[in-house]
Amino acid sequence: MNFKPSPQLTEQQVNMGLKQVIKDGLSSEAMVCLTGGTFLMSMALLMKASNFQIGLLTSLPIFTNIFQLLSIWLVQRYNNRRAIMVICSFIARIPLFAIGVLPFLFSGGTSMTVLLFMLSFHYLFGSIAGASWSSWMKDLVPAERMGTYFGHRRRMMLILSTVLSVALALGLDYIKLHYQQYELTAYGVMFVVGGICGMLGVWALARTPEPQSYLPKENLLKLFSKPLRNTNFRKLLVFQSAWVFACSMSTPFFSVFMMKTVGLSLSYIIGLSLISQVSTIFSIKMWGKYADRFSNKTILSIAAPLFICCILGYLFVAQASSQSMAIVMLVVIHVLGGFSLAGVTLALDNFGMKLAPNDEAIVYISTRNIVVALMGAFAPMLGGLLADVLATQSVLLSLPIAGKVIPILHLQGWSILFLGGGLLAIASLRLLYRVAEEGETERSIAVGHMRVAFKSSLQDKWNREALLNLIYYPVALPVMLGKKVQRRLVRRMAIIRRYSTGTELRRSA
């Protein structure tokens, strides 16, 4: 296969490439779903991992981003991002097969040390490939369609992840209940299948065309310092570093908190993740459209505060009087969390790509990833250590009213950690307003436009269709009505529909 970049791509080549990138996204999402996230945490807990090891496991994909310097050097030397991406991605998928095979080769399975080593190898080469991919996509995807396209791609990935997560959770719970001795073996099979999905993604990328680019053959450290000398980009680095540190200190432990403190099974946790993903699926298209229309900064100023409220919401989950009440609160948090995180993730990714100059995009994007990685990798490890220290600590927040001390919140262990993460996230938002972005709009204007658009859509769909459907569709259900009565009601509903449609047509005329 010829990996040589093209001096200029036709519109047909670009459209074909965008389809291949979506195929890669779906394959990669299946790989991540099978080998990461909640399932990886569940596997780590099965292997008796400590809180520090869980924090280290979470920080690995972030910490290995510092090796993206190698990606800059490779692009500078060979000027072929597609070849670098395909080769490094192929190497990165091999450890997944090794992890999956180990439980079949050794009766004792594998240890956390071996798991951490293999995943380090996986994330390292994945990070090198990731920098080339980001620079490649910046040149391939038209700038005016970036938010819409990546929003659509992310939406399709989330739909796949949602369906796959539910199936895996049900399967794992069934194995745990009836064949507990094969639970670790099931995770091994998941890693093998995840490796296969990853290789399918590599094949899709190998068929994606690459527009030719040129990276100056300057000293690597000199190139690396260019983004740091760019005042506006440096402000973006400071904000993203602070934001990632604040969120990464607490969010990786939400699943552990729900398992250990609330006492939820894996099915419940995956069900909550499903709710969050469904919320993201329905909102990410909207975020992508408004990011193109207003700006990434505006989207962050709207979505980030809502996500912080979700982090702080876990404080009240810990105070719930019963598990049922905790589940209700978690459902609300996951709905709002999925909605807000869709906007935050999309805007953060596109923000750095938009501010990076075309000729040096890989340098700017890699610099951002490396600087953010240093903060994001340290935060989960610190969070894990703090979780162990705070496990036996408690803080009572009270308010003096009319000479009496009224208790408000009783914080213990995880709650203290979540409070700290939420307060740091609030502080990091102040750094966002120092970053300038072309085409940015005041948050109040964007919120007003979104509110008007939502009301208009609600009125159009609800007043004309939904009200009729509330009357019509129950007739179609197998209720205790005779067939004659059913047919008569259906005919009347049809007359009402025709009259409503005619009225609307006369109004438009």
From TrEMBL:
CDD domains: MFS
UniProt keyword Kinase present: no
Entry keyword Ubl conjugation: no
Keywords, comma-separated and alphabetical: Membrane, Transmembrane, Transmembrane helix
Pfam entry (one): MFS_1
GO terms of molecular function: transmembrane transporter activity
Listed transmembrane segments: 26-46, 52-75, 84-106, 112-136, 157-175, 187-206, 236-259, 265-287, 299-318, 324-348, 369-391, 411-433
Listed name of the protein: Major Facilitator Superfamily protein
InterPro entries, per the entry: MFS, MFS_trans_sf, Sugar_transport-like
